[in-house]
Amino acid sequence: MIVRLWCALFVFSGAAAILYEVVFHKIVSYVFGSTAYATSTVLAAYMAGLSAGSFLGGRLADRVKRPLLWYGAAELGAGLWFYQAWRLLALSAPLEARLATGGSLALLTAYQFVASLLVIVVPTVLLGATFPLAVRGLFGRTEPRRLTSLLYFSNTLGTAIGTVVVSYVLLPRLGLTGTLRVGLLLAASLSLAAASIGRRAPPAPALPEAVVAAAPRPGGMSRRMVLGFCCASGMSVFAWEVVWTHLYALLLGNSVYSFATVLFCVLFGMALGSIAVARSGADPIDLLIIAEIALVGVSLVLIQCVDFIPAVFDAAGSRSLGFHARELVKFAVTAVTLLPPCVCLGVVFPALLALVPASAAGAGRAIGAAYAINTVGAVIGSVLTGFFLLPHLGSRGTSYLIIAANAGLAALLLTRAGGRVLRARPLLAATTGLAMVAVVLHPSWSWRRLLQATGVYFTPMPTSTFKRILDNREDVHGGVTTVVESPEGVRFLLSNGKFQGDSGPEIVDQYGQALLTELYPHGHEAALNIGVGTGGTLGVLSLLSYERVVGVELAAPIVDMARAHFADINFGALDRPGVTVLVRDGRHYLATLPQEARFDTITVQVSSLWFAGAANLYSRDLYALAAARLREGGVFQQWVQLHHTRREDLAVILRTLRAEFPYLALFVPGHQGIVIASREPLTLRAAHLASLRMPPPLAARGLDFEDLAGSLLLGPAEVDAFLAAAPPGPLSTDDFPILEFETPKGNALGFNFSEIVTDLMAHRRGGAAAHFVAAGLPPDEAQRLLIKLKLREMKLYRPYTLAWLAILNDISMLDLTEGNRAFFQRQLEAWRGP
Questions:
Q1: I want to staple 160 with a disulfide (CB 3.0 to 4.6 A). Which of 139, 152, 267, 524 is the partner?
Q2: For 324-371, how does the pLDDT look when each residue is reduced to its tens digit (9 = 90+)?
Q3: Are 395 and 243 in contact (CB under 8 A)?
């Protein structure tokens, strides 16, 4: 009874542990940045704490009289400490900022490791100690193998459930602080329950000698070999997790929900594998052999056939499925493909724990050592796979290498298994046959199918009709980064199959990012571009009169491909004097700049807001940071998605921006929205517009400042009107990153650009003309400039009949001079054509 009750507690313990880890990972992205180096460094520190906790907790468990009471204290201590982790980690920011400006990545990484370790060493050591404390406290109440397997199952099941609850419920509704409060409540409840059980339960009875004698021994396997297999098990699990997370970001879309789906399936599969060990009476070594051989077979089939998965989402796209229905489809596909190998992985470690000597006197120490070495293996597997194997071998080659390692482990087990080799023959034959069939029938992936990215919109991306792949790279920084060429010769830059920029249709948007800021007077000493992409925006900034231009990009492959494949549209900006390109987290770069550093223009170019982590650049905290880095009169510019977007999410973006920048203007120069924000009034001054000169390379492409000014959809007063009409809603902040959890829901809406623009136009009151100040130009010239702006608006809104007629009426109401009236007629006839 006590064991069952404790297993129920351990489910909640697992849920609390994943809650802490997910929230702490988010906090780290704010303080240290979202680079793979930063997150992996903190993960290593986190796992190091768990490993030390397992080792020390095992030794403590064998020395104390009531391990269950110590378990309760460990849960409570971890919850209390994690609740303060954000404040503690923030204390490291000033020194980290100095190191970040020094330029030494090795020194910065070392500091981040030490700082994060100092912050989380206490709670992670406490969490790591919980398993050996629980095992020792319950030792003797059931057969040791059953006990460790049941506790492992319960904890892993809780972690799986917690992943879904935290990602789909707690964080979207409560934010980070609210979620940590839930974790603290869980910790307090677990502590009280453990204290109640620990005090009332009689001391654990000594294990009957008959049970000890019958307990499995590592026949043919030394204690060191068992621990070696524990380390290899941790390496295998985390190596596979890195590969699957990487691949399924491409298959499902790189949203926070996709990550939660993959992690749930991995953990749930491992939980199923562990319960199989608890209920099976088979020899643990037999179970290990079966699990490793089966893992080789099912993993090979999965990897060979992974490029067929996009077809499932494409087929489901023929039905009008909402967000939740699509998430269920993604979950079903992920479960069917990942559960079989994960069940095999889940068998391995519990079976190894069953080989740990079943001595009551040293149970805690033995279990703690096994857990500690398993965690060390997990760190090695994660770092080795992410930073070395994936970039050099790709996901397919890395998978083959892991499969070969699993096969090697199976072979090593068979050499120690004696007569078990004969019993394993049928499974070996089946696995070998399955592998041969899979390789022969489907020897290579179709990147054309994989890059369709149907898991995002449940229909192939428009770029999936490409003629050829010009470049394709995989790493943990940017996922799968690709350059493809269409039959018409247009090049597209893709990140996990999702559009990032091109050399054709979207070029106006890319150039407009920088050019629109020129419509408002500001200084030209320095400009910052966060999100380099194809380099189009950076190229425009380099052609303008800025003395210094800085581009910051998170993924190195994107910078390399912008330089190699898009130099014609970025004008070779990445290698121009006066232009600096950094591979860093853009927000972290802003936060760690010297206090005196200032910019005249800051542009943020993130092409997919629903990407996990992208919302960090759409929070009030980022906007406050940017505002503090702008010189007086400086302008902040940001890309805003106007398709597959919900009206309420757009309102959150604009409302959050306006909380730091009182004046906003929304432009639509192409098929995307661009917001200009400032703490100074935004007006289109005739004299300033007339003084602007388009750089020759851009003028040769037909770009014109007057046309760009005419693409103004909503001025400051009209943005205010839109927000006043929108339902009240929250701001997007670091503590409550609502956009990260809400914007993926817009992917189920279809391409609703026209609907969004129509909705915004209802709040339009005169467009560019309403914000046009004629002072500074002769009246005739100012009037002609105004006509040009109105004509540009007519072109932009031609699909919207009522708006088009309203603009035409605006012009007819103007008191035009004779010359300007004739000018208007000529322009209108030229635009209409013969």
A1: 267
A2: 999 999 999 999 999 999 999 999 999 998 887 655 556 678 888 888
A3: yes
